[in-house]
Specification:
- The protein has about 220 residues and is mainly alpha-helical.
- The chain has a domain of about 150 residues.
- It is about 55% helix and about 10% strand.
- The chain is built from seven helices and three strands.
- The chain has a three-stranded antiparallel beta sheet.
Length: about 220
């Protein structure tokens, strides 16, 4: 277990180092997130605190600001679902989208870490185009990442005895906590139509994953 923790610490240090190229930082963050999720580590384990794994459900608010924040918070929600968390979009604050997440502290931390990497990747590879094109691209990008993470999740379930039951139980407890203590929800995330921009983003999103040497290898975005 010590070697695993040291590996994750090294990945996080690499990702956060000022001289690390952006693609390498994204790769390191995603791989660290996958390992933390697989072996049950949380953010506390990397803050010099000694704590036993806590399986209780917690609630956290995540604020997403900046351009295309609505589509980006959809991406956060999609990633959270793949990490056995659930949640909803709360009332916005000025130019900030507020997402409330329910789940284990470990799972929410992993989801937020992976979202940071995916968000950086999207900003780096977002192609030129009008606002409508770029919004559609972000929707496709989110769908592609969902597909990539679904593959990783299935690999974990296949490689881990009882893994599927464990993940299902975590999701059930997160849902139960939200229903018991959260507001009554009357709307859900809507599906979207497909087009050239959506397909372009989806292809890029499918490349997202720790199995890759770098994300979106050979693809250059035009941020503007």
């Amino acid at each position: 277990m010590t070697n695993r923790k040291e590996t994750i610490q090294a990945l996080l240090a690499r990702a956060n180092h000022a001289t690390t190229p952006q693609p390498e930082a994204e790769t390191a963050l995603a791989l660290a997130s996958k390992l933390m999720h697989k072996y049950g580590f949380s953010n506390h384990d990397f803050n010099n605190e000694t704590m036993q794994q806590d399986n209780s459900v917690v609630v956290q608010e995540v604020r997403v600001s900046g351009k295309y924040r609505v589509q980006r918070q959809h991406l956060l929600y999609a990633i959270a679902l793949k990490h056995s968390c659930t949640g909803y979009r709360s009332d916005d604050e000025l130019d900030v989208c507020v997402v409330v997440l329910y789940g284990r502290d470990t799972d929410i931390f992993a989801a937020r870490t992976l979202f940071a990497a995916a968000d950086a990747m999207g900003a780096r590879l977002l192609p030129r185009g009008d606002r409508s094109w770029r919004i559609s691209w972000w929707k496709g990008f989110s769908a592609g990442i969902e597909e990539a993470l679904a593959v990783t999740r299935q690999e974990f379930i296949s490689e881990t005895t009882g893994g599927g039951l464990v993940l299902a139980d975590r999701m059930t407890r997160a849902h139960d906590e939200m229903r018991a203590h959260g507001p009554r929800l009357v709307a859900r995330y809507a599906s979207v139509g497909r087009g050239a921009a959506y397909s372009s983003g989806q292809q890029v999103g499918r490349r997202f994953g720790p199995a890759q040497r770098s994300f979106g290898a050979g693809v250059k975005g035009e941020i503007g």
